[in-house]
Amino acid sequence: MSMILFACVVRVRDGLPLSASTDFYHTQDFLECRRRLKTLALQLAQYPGRGSAEGRDFNIHFSSLRDVACMAICSRQCPVAMAFSFLETLWWEFTASYDTTCIGLASRPYAFLEFDSIIQNVKWHFNHVSSIQMESSLEKIQEELEFQPPVVLTLEDTDVANGLMNGHTQIHLEPAPNFRMEPVTALGVLSLILNIMCAALNLIRGIHLAEHSLQVVHEEIGNILAFLIPFVACIFQCYLYLFYSPARTMKVVFLLLFICLGNMYLHGLRNVWQILFHIAVAFLSSYQILTRQLQEKQSDCGV
C-alpha cells in the first residue's frame, strides 16, 4: 500500500487550492481526513512552516514557505522525514514553475491543473523508490526536524481551530483570511499600464535632474522630491490595486494627495497638459483600487 495517499498545493493566506493529485481513495475515514485537510488549509497562516495533524489511520503533514504550502495525507506507517522530504520537493517544483505574482492573482480553485501530473509523478517516486535510494535526502530532513520539530496537532484540533467545537476546549486563534480580490478588469489593466508609465516618467526626470545639479539649491531639492515622491506613490498604487491591504481607502487618499501636490509643485517644469495627465491617471487608479472589492471565498472551493 502507498504511504503517501494524497497531496495538494494551497495558497497560505486564504487556503485556496492551487493543484492536487488524483484521489483514488473513497473510504469514509479517508474522506473525513480530506475534509479536515480542507479545514486545516484555512488555518495555515496561524502555524509555523512545518506541522503534522495526527489521526487514527492517517496523518496530515504540511510545509509552507512564503505564500505557498504543500499538504499531504499519509498513512500512519509513513516516516515523518519521508513525508516532509516529499513536501519540500513538491514546494520547489511548484515555485520553480510559477512566480509569486501568478500565484497571488489566482482567483479560482485549481488554477494550475497542469501541475497535477507533476504531483502524481513526485508522489509515485516517493511511494515506489526504496528508502535506501533516498537515504541522503532523508537524513538531511531528519536533522532539520530534530533541530526545529514540526508543530503536532490532532485531526480534532483542526475542527476546533475552525470554530467547530465537538466538545473540545476552545483554542483561541485569529481567523485565517477567507477572502480574495475580484478578477482584474480591462480598465484596471489600463490604469496599471498608465500608472507604470507615469512612475517611469517621474523616476527618469527626477534622476536626470539630480545628476545635472552640480550645486543643489533648495528649490532643486524640492523639484527632485516632487518627482520621486509621486514615483513611489504610483508604484504603491499599483500594489494596492493588485493586492489587498487593510485601511486601503486612507492609503489611496494619501497617495492621491501626494501625486497631486507633487505635480502642482512642478508647474513650470511641466506644462498644464502634462500635469493634468498625471493627475487624471492618479484619479483613475484610485477609482480602480476602491472599486475592486474583496470577493468572498466560495463555500464549495474545497480541497
Automatic annotation (TrEMBL):
Keywords: Endoplasmic reticulum, ER-Golgi transport, Membrane, Protein transport, Transmembrane, Transmembrane helix, Transport. It is a multi-pass membrane protein. Pfam families: Longin, SEC22a_C. InterPro entries: Longin-like_dom_sf (IPR011012), Longin_dom (IPR010908), SEC22a-c_C (IPR059071), Sec22a/c (IPR043546). GO terms for biological process: endoplasmic reticulum to Golgi vesicle-mediated transport; protein transport. The chain crosses the membrane at residues 184-204, 224-242, 249-266, 272-290. GO terms for cellular component: endoplasmic reticulum membrane. Residues 8-119 form the Longin domain. It is found in: Endoplasmic reticulum membrane. SUPFAM superfamilies: SNARE-like. May be involved in vesicle transport between the ER and the Golgi complex. Belongs to the synaptobrevin family. PANTHER family: LONGIN DOMAIN-CONTAINING PROTEIN, VESICLE-TRAFFICKING PROTEIN SEC22C. This is Vesicle-trafficking protein SEC22c. It comes from Callorhinus ursinus (Northern fur seal). The lineage of its organism: Eukaryota, Metazoa, Chordata, Craniata, Vertebrata. The gene is SEC22C.
